[in-house]
Amino acid sequence: MSDKDPNPGTPTGMFERFGETYAAGHVLFREGDAGKHMYVIQSGRVQLTRRVRGREAHLATLPPGEFFGEMAIINREPRSATATVIEESHLLVLDARTFEAMIRGNAEIAIRMIKKLSLRLSQANSQVETLLKQDLNHRIVHQLRLLADTRGQADGPGVRIDISIEELAELVGAKDAKHVVDGLDGLEKARLLQKQVGSIFIAEVGKLAEFLEFLEMKERFGS
Q1: Model confidence pLDDT, tens digit, residues 92-103
Q2: Which of 60, 90, 168, 200 is spaced 20 to 30 A from 178 at the CA atom?
Q3: pTM of the model
């Protein structure tokens, strides 16, 4: 960070005014906490988790450029997840007053926020679409296809989705995680994916998409 840039409107100036550095392992907030700040990741990564059936479920790993925690200062709602720094991170820490001033004073920031919130709404709508599928295996494939696009990380020729069985079970509305395991076993036998510890590897997303199209046709027109 340079001392030659005192302008608070520049990235350097913003970090000088609102920036904090956190070590790996630091918990920024916990699920259920009251919140007075939102965060913007300048560098590093932050993991979001939530308790699901008594266990900690991974929601997302956020890279630089992402923001989080905004609902606590917009709607004054309790934190819906726990945020943990997983590598040393430089974050902008903004309270409601500062956030509102930034939105009012910078159209570009406002537009970026609107686009991001719109994307999150779209993902929520996709989640509803998943839950409307009648067959559990169909819901699993549909959700994995969505996750490949939104949370998938390139892994050689394929994509890795960091997700627990419990979290996937919650996302697809399964009453018992064992049923999800059975569904994944079937997809693994069909060579559409590989179960790994804490993740699912999809060698060819295109093949999974083709299988999803088959399931869509089957559900629409019957067997």
Answers
A1: 999 988 888 877
A2: 60
A3: 0.56
Domain co-membership, 144 together with 61 = no
Backbone angles phi, psi at 47, to 5 degrees: -105, 135
The reply to whether 208 falls in a domain is yes
Calpha distance 88→91 (Å, rounded): 10
**Do 132 and 212 belong to one domain?**
yes
CB 211 within 8 A of CB 148: no
End-to-end CA distance of the chain: 63
What CATH number corresponds to the domain at position 168? Answer: 1.10.10.10
Provide the domain limits for residue 203: 127-221
Q: How many residues does the chain have?
A: 223
Helices (H) and strands (E) in the chain, counts: 8, 10
E-strand ranges in 63-184 read: 67-68, 82-95, 153-155, 158-162
Q: How far apart are CA 119 and CA 66, in angstroms?
A: 12
Q: In this structure, are 139 and 190 located in the same domain? A: yes
Phi/psi for 175 (5° steps) reads -75, -25
Of 19, 111, 124, nearest to 64 by C-alpha is 19
